[in-house]
Specification:
The chain is built from 3 helices and 10 strands, in the order αβαββββββββαβ. With 132 residues, the protein is of the alpha+beta class.
């Protein structure tokens, strides 16, 4: 298996590909930041939930996708800040996703959160991804 340079993008694309293929779940190597992203996606209604499988040599995170009337809840993801080009935003300058229909995921000093929560707490951070 090849070494990944961007595990967050790999995780998001695995979820998107599971939706596009009509799969009910997908797995990815576990990390704390992936668990936080999955928590945000669950709170926002993009996935049903996730489990952490620690059986085996390396832990895995299993994400259960969500479909409504055979339509995927998640239509697209975009990795904004990447290892080669970081993008930081202030609390008041977060971009809107599809005129407010999607969410931004920010990495702040208080952990991962959506841009609406970051605006309420008046903190900025690294704009990791956009989900719609």
């Amino acid at each position: 298996m090849a070494a990944l340079t961007d595990p967050i993008a790999d995780f998001l694309i695995r979820i998107k590909n599971a939706y596009m293929a009509g799969n009910e779940e997908c797995t990815a190597p576990y990390s704390k930041i992936k668990e936080d992203i999955a928590t945000i996606l669950k709170e926002e209604g993009y996935i049903w939930g996730f489990d952490i499988d620690k059986n085996g040599k390396f832990p895995q995170i299993k994400v259960r996708t969500r479909f409504t009337d055979n339509a995927p809840a998640l239509h697209g993801v975009k990795r904004v800040s990447r290892p080669g080009l970081r993008r930081y935003v202030g609390s008041k300058e977060t971009p809107r996703v599809l005129s407010g229909l999607g969410i931004n995921i920010l990495s702040t000093s208080k952990g991962l959160m959506t841009c609406t929560r970051a605006k309420k707490e008046n903190i900025g951070g690294e704009l990791l991804a956009q989900v719609w």
